[in-house]
Hints:
There is one protein chain. By secondary structure, the protein is α+β, with helices and mostly antiparallel strands. It has 2 domains: 56-120, wza like fold (2-Layer Sandwich); 125-206, Outer membrane lipoprotein wza domain like (Outer membrane lipoprotein wza fold like, Roll). Helix content is 21%, strand content 25%. It contains 4 helices and 10 strands, in the order αββββαβββαββαβ. It has helices at residues 10-29, 94-105, 146-152, 183-187, and strands at 56-61, 68-72, 78-81, 85-88, 114-120, 125-130, 136-139, 165-170, 176-181, 203-206. It has a 5-stranded mixed β-sheet, covered by helices on one side. Strands 2-1-5 form a 3-stranded antiparallel β-sheet, covered by helices on one side. The protein has a two-stranded antiparallel sheet with strand order 3-4.
Amino acid sequence: MPIRLSQSRWPVCMAALVLACAVPAAWAATPPVSGQQPPAPAGAPTEAYTVKPGDVLSIAVWKEPDLQGPVLVRPDGSFSFPLAGQIDARNRTVAELQQTVTDRLKKFISDPVVTVSIAEVKGNKVYVLGQVNRPGEFIVNPRVDVMQALSMAGGTTAFAALGEITILRRLADGQQQSLPFRYADVARGRNLQQNILLQAGDVVVVP
């Protein structure tokens, strides 16, 4: 049996129907707020890792069995590879080194297909010294902050001066920088900018 609406309810129902159809269209037509950026997609890539002295690279050239194997990055930041010669790996990513090896091998091989990867991350080290339970050097992959480094060192001892922790960092020009770290502030969620990401060679000193 069909449903009949009374004349008194007919205008109200028609108005509700028009509103329901108009609202989604208005939403779709609403322009974004000026300067507003869409959220970053999940899993956005982070900064690429740069090769450090002590890292072991795996280099292979397709269909060239004599041109493959592990390669150690020397303390000066360079390594050697047959036909490619000496290559400076300092502050360079794996993709950049792969392109360099490819370009050099083009002089001897037609269209070489080169693969470069990091076999072992041994050069990305930080050091934690002083009043911690397990002082020493720690290989980090890829990077850790100060609190994480203290955790890797087994935490601080009962005699640690938590308000006087210092991070020593060697700059590119050879000068050394001292960065203060107040454990109590960070533990309470304050001044979190102190909890910096450590760079290779940084020394965390807990007096």
